[in-house]
Specification:
The protein is α/β, with parallel strands linked by helices and 319 residues long. Strands 3-2-1-4-8-6-9-7 form an 8-stranded mixed sheet, sandwiched between helices. Strands 5-10 form a two-stranded antiparallel sheet. It starts with a strand and ends with a helix.
């Protein structure tokens, strides 16, 4: 095993979610061999600073406990003195960790992991360390190939390759990130040299409109990484069943308000056992790509009968 696992966790103002995310990480079998770096973003105003300080108080309490029980190898808290915003916090945080480690595992404050998540990441890093075509290791997948499409899962290897990167619990190597990642500042800069066919491929024929985020300021880090992987002809190793769960979908304000109207077709419990993983030739499977294109329509949101009625009424009264 690698035994040099490093996890970067990016947090802001959600103490309960952060507590759950770290608690699930501590339950991982390789937690005692892991260095954890928590990057706590600063507040924007007095109200947000109050929530940020609540998170930081909780973090320091967890650090005292972890340091005394040795549940992690190291637990480091980096407190931003001002509001960096998510993109800067993540990009600079990844750079900070990769100055100290060969690989990085990235979590945000609402990503709860399977107890075997770190084992999977560690083995993936080892198996594909010397293959630069494999640029990204995902812990999340929209699909449930193990139960729904077992014929697409190889014996003894419950992973697959895709050009699409999933940003909920993921990792990469120092050389891949440093050689390819670039934080674009404009849409034209991000798409320079790419053809309409390239854009269509990244957006799965339009059902996954990820490039719309290039109009945001700042441009999201994950859109930049998606483009970097595409430019390099890279692939992403992905589990055949998710090893993480985004708890923000279940207990965030938006989801609570609209749970009777909509659901998410990818929201499922992480796999409760070790994922089988062996080295394979990095290539995507067109059959799986078609399944993903179908699953990602409407960002994976599926409306209840009541939600469909509300949506129809909303469109009817829209001026």
């Amino acid at each position: 095993m690698n035994r040099e696992l490093a996890v970067a966790i990016f947090v802001y103002n959600r103490a309960d979610n952060t507590r759950q995310t770290i608690s699930h990480l501590l339950a991982n079998t390789l937690a005692p061999n892991t260095d954890v770096y928590v990057f706590s973003d600063g507040g924007k105003d007095s109200a947000s600073w109050e929530a940020v300080n609540e998170v930081r108080t909780m973090l320091h309490g967890m650090k005292r406990l972890v340091d005394s029980t040795h549940e992690l190898r190291n637990f480091t808290i980096i407190e931003r003195p001002e509001n960096y915003y998510l993109e800067r916090n993540i990009i600079e945080g990844i750079g900070y960790v990769l100055q100290r480690h060969d690989t990085v595992i990235v979590l945000e404050d609402d990503i709860c992991t399977s107890p075997y998540f770190l084992e999977y990441m560690d083995e993936a890093f080892r198996l594909y360390r010397d293959n630069p075509k494999v640029m990204h290791v995902s812990g999340f997948t929209n699909l449930n190939l193990l139960d729904d499409h077992p014929h697409l899962v190889a014996d003894g290897n419950e992973t697959y390759f895709t050009p699409h990167m999933a940003g909920w619990g993921w990792g990469t190597w120092r050389d891949r990130w440093q050689n390819h990642f670039r934080h674009y500042t404009t849409r034209s800069e991000a798409l320079e040299g790419l053809t309409s066919e390239d854009e269509d491929a990244m957006q799965y024929g339009g059902v996954f409109p990820c490039l719309k985020s290039l109009d945001k300021s700042p441009i999201p880090w994950d859109a930049c990484w998606e483009i970097a992987i595409h430019r390099a002809g890279g692939l992403c190793l992905t589990p055949a069943h998710t090893l993480v769960r985004n708890i923000g979908l279940r207990n965030g304000t938006h989801f609570r308000s609209f749970r009777i109207l909509q659901d998410y077709n990818f929201d499922r419990q992480p796999l409760g056992r070790r994922l089988l993983i062996t080295k394979a030739e990095p290539k995507s499977d067109p059959r799986i790509e078609l399944l993903f294109a179908e699953a990602i329509k409407d960002w994976g949101i599926r409306y209840t009968w009541l939600g469909k009625i509300v949506r129809r009424l909303k469109h009817m009264i829209k001026p």
